[in-house]
# Entry
Amino acid sequence: VQLVESGGGLVQPGGSLRLSCAASGFTFSRYDMSWYRQAPGREREVVASITSGRGDTNYADSVKGRFALSRFDARNMVYLQMNSLKPEDTGVYYCNARGWLGYRLNDYWGQGTQVTVSS
# Structure
């Protein structure tokens, strides 16, 4: 199983970034996908999630209206478009896959990609 994030970097406030997560080694279409972030000295928090099947999305209040999450099951990819970035969006962003295999709940994580919003 692999989740490989990319697209992080340094951006000025008000700028945009698009994070990508490439998944392999599991049945991607059956898993809910999420992005989490962890800022220095803070706990990891969920930023956005998208369900398997219908693709319903949910966002943290702090990013609503600025971030957009999408998935492409045919490519085993999930994308997080981040607009109007703020310094408080700074952190390491992690891709997460969660789904059931029989009676077992599987929870997979990527290695993270750094996002820094600073002038």
